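Hey, I'm writing a tutorial for new members on how sequence and structure tokens pair up, and I'd like a real worked example in the thread rather than a made-up one. If someone can provide the structure for the chain below, I'll link this post from the tutorial.
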Amino acid sequence: MAVSRKRMIKKVMNWAGVAFFVFAVYALYSQLSKHSWVDIKGALLAIPGFNLLLALAAAAAGYVVLSMYEWLALRYIGRKLATWKWMLAGFMGFAITNNAGTAIVTGAAMRYRLYTMWKIQLSNIIKMIIFSGFTYLTGCFFLLAVGYFLIPEGARGASVISLVVWPSVAALLAYLFVTLFYHGKKVNIGEHSMKIPSTGTMLAQGILGFTDTVVASLVLYSVLSALVPVDFSTYVGVFAISQVIGVYTPVPGALGVFEGLFMFLLPEAQGNEAAVFAALIAYRIIYFLIPLAFTGAIMAFMTIQSRRRYRRVTKKAG
């Protein structure tokens, strides 16, 4: 019975992903239908080189912040690693996660490969992944609470916004209550025993998630502000809401969902659809595809080095 229920949930999630993607594509099409690809291409080419450099610098800073997830998780399990190691694990893990799917566990295989190489036990690796997942969710809950008051007032009444925001705020308050009164106690998550973190750690999780999104928003803002004048406070709220709701959908990388919501919520997108979409394309390339390309190159280098070591050991043994 339990197995069939799991299969049913998996099917529902898969179909939900398709439905969200189809809806996102339709929403984008309806907003962009009055513009040609020539308009979008022209807007892309109109982005100044200086703004692209700013976006690249913001992306680099963003992945440094993302790597702090690893540092906080290592601190949680009471382990220390050289800075370059946890930064590398964070960069590669999130480069894969951001593109392959929004849940942090999609980068688990990469983290497992690196951390086992650095002599961290499997049980601790799993605890780190679970803890980082909670860090990500805590940041999402916090961002939804803040972003709700920054988006345009007219957009707050949208059912999809209310449906996600208020349960997230309730979850954040519940997590705060648990850390206040039950920190230090252990709970079982699957087969693993996890210690409830302190309120200070919980606040650090929220601040880290908030900082991560604000820095990531600067990547898009760097290119968007060169094409369309936008109010930054409203922009950050729209970015946060769009990103977090995109995270909640099963669409890989929230592709289309983030773009559709962002263009729907941003007031300045009205009448500037081609320019805003061009900025979103540049954002995808800079923050998603370039880090993934670097990760692929690093993985290829690691694989070559591993094969060379194996051949040397084999020759010596022979």
